[in-house]
Sequence to fold (152 residues):
Amino acid sequence: MGISSLIISILAGILSLATFLHELYTSRFSSTAKVLSIHEVPHNGFYMKILITNHSSNPVSITSVHVDGIINVSEKQIVLEGTKTKLPFYTNSLPIEIGSYGAVNLTLFFRNAKRLYDYEDLVPIKINTSRKEINDVMNIKTFKKNLSELRE
Fold:
């Protein structure tokens, strides 16, 4: 009886360790951000469409996004497209929560008088979350699209 109890307790310990390591691996912070497009509003700023994916089993909140040190406008903004009359299209307001293994497509507005062609080739982007910062660099000029394409 002593040997079988010892074997069972060793197997239970190994199973507990495997469960702990699996939980640690799936709950660690892992999120990615992908810029989809940037739409300039001349001398007023730009809209940016971004896809943020949570690869973790724990939810995460996106609190702010910075592009070249400029923070996004946190309240909802109506997207203006010149003189065209269309249904209202709003930007997202932050903070926003992403559930476990989820993703969110955000449209954000950045108020800035600087034109997109005045930026350097690589521009830093920082996404503040409830768990950790996501830092990356992007080439703004490769994502630039017309303002009329924002709804697509």
